Amino acid sequence: MSRIIDMSSWPRREIYSFFAPMSDPFYSLTFPVDVTRLRACCRERGISFYMAMTFAVTKAMESVDAFLYKDRDGVIVKHERLVPSFTDLTPGSELFRIVTLEAGDDMADFCRRAKAKSAAQGGFISSGPWAEDELIYFTCLPWFPVSALKNERDANPSDSVPRVSWGRWREEGGRTLLDLSLELNHRLLDGVHVGMFFERLTERIGSL
User: Which CATH superfamily is domain 2-9+25-206 in?
Assistant: First the structure.
């Protein structure tokens, strides 16, 4: 479900108008996240760290109001949810597929459903009853550390889909740290919203 926002009373109207004429309003940033507890939880429950991290990021973004706003060529809409769409390697192959499914409210259940859907998916990409701008795009490069990453995209300055990526984690002072890379549209999201997201993600992982 989504609703159209009245631009005349939208508090962000002036900031949006400042960035709207720019052909490239996107920015990217990378920061470390302490995933020690998430990694331990995945071992305890026998679930995929990649899919658990995908779930945690999705729910943390959903909990920050600004991430729910989307730009449809100058029409602003607000969604009630976000839907993770992640790359996954085909077993025994160098080829990958893109798997998309609703997050739900339970991490272990999402991990089971995501694993099953990925295994059953015959084609490269899955479709479903979601709008394109409800999605979050995820990718993981577990073979090496990633300190920054730029994804491919069409030259559409209204593109409101966050890109999330990470590489290999690292051990530091008894903790497991993961560098998380985000690509966001400045028309809709500022650094303060990333800070809120970081807090919610840290809290979510810490409460496991």
Answer: Chloramphenicol acetyltransferase-like domain (3.30.559.10)
